[in-house]
Amino acid sequence: MNSGTSPELVKLKAAIEHWQDPYAQAPLSQVADVQIEAAAQGPDICITWRYPIRGVRAQLEPQIADFIATQIGDGAFRLACEFEVSATKPGNPVPAMGGIKNIIAVASGKGGVGKSTTAVNLALALSQAGARVGLLDADIYGPSQPVMVGVPEGTRPEVVDGKAFKPILALGLQTMSIGYLVTESTPMVWRGPMVSGALQQLLTQTLWDALDYLIIDLPPGTGDIQLTLSQKVPVSGAVIVTTPQDIALLDARKGIEMFGKVNVPVLGIVENMSIHICSQCGHQEAIFGEGGGERIASDYHTRVLGRLPLAMRIREQADGGKPTAYAEPDSEIGRIYAALAASVGGELAKRAAQGAPAGPKINVTG
Fold this sequence. Notes:
alpha/beta, Alpha-Beta Plaits, Rossmann fold, eight-stranded mixed β-sheet, three-stranded mixed β-sheet, about 35% helix, globular
């Protein structure tokens, strides 16, 4: 906004910056830059979010436009919505990795809660939103991401100069997994130090290409890999996946406690299998309980980032190599994943506002 702007436009800019972003759950000034220029037909307003908004633009843009209209009254205005992904300082005291702006760990306290499915759909939803995204399968003992992103068995990454791997491109993601280096039937009979070393090699010896986000799908629990990641990898934040079951919630608490001890911020909770919707009659039933995610979020001063239903379609599409966020982004479940991606991006943008450098600008059109 020009220094000579009228008091009316100064007031309008302040009002817009106080508007609550529904995905970041914060004032817009914490997650976006607002520019206003006077024009004959009314003010030109450009809002540049610091997280990718393409997946939720259809919901976000009308909301902010309606708010601006209430501030202007009957006057006309022009609104442009763009985004640029900010880089976030790691929560743990580890130097940032060149070429990767944000590293997000997706974790769970126990197996069977849908962590890997959530990780791949989060990665795909961020990609659909316009970001450059990588996916690292850190579950050394049970790698599942190659199947979920539809990479044929036997595919091997290209080796560069005998010391680095090119990530395998799949569904728009840059991916790496121990599953690309062994056969599906090969058991990983390794002790903890070998597993931790393998994780570090997969992360640091992969030639990631200018990523906005690297999603790391961790194995369940709080063991060697989680500690290695927390101590030696510049993690921007962690997402905890759980189900509403009491036993799953107990294990989720352990995961949150672990990340707290190693100074990795927990961005929020994803409550998977939150509700079952009968395919015959549409009846909804919380068969695994309800309210558990909210209780944990309240206890640890974080938030529920999203709730996913117990739906056969999610499992079928992941098993078929085209997860829901990619196969059906405009479906009801696809929109839930899009909102989850926006919420995760918004949480990281709030942290970036505390002083982390911003990345290159990405203009969104259409």
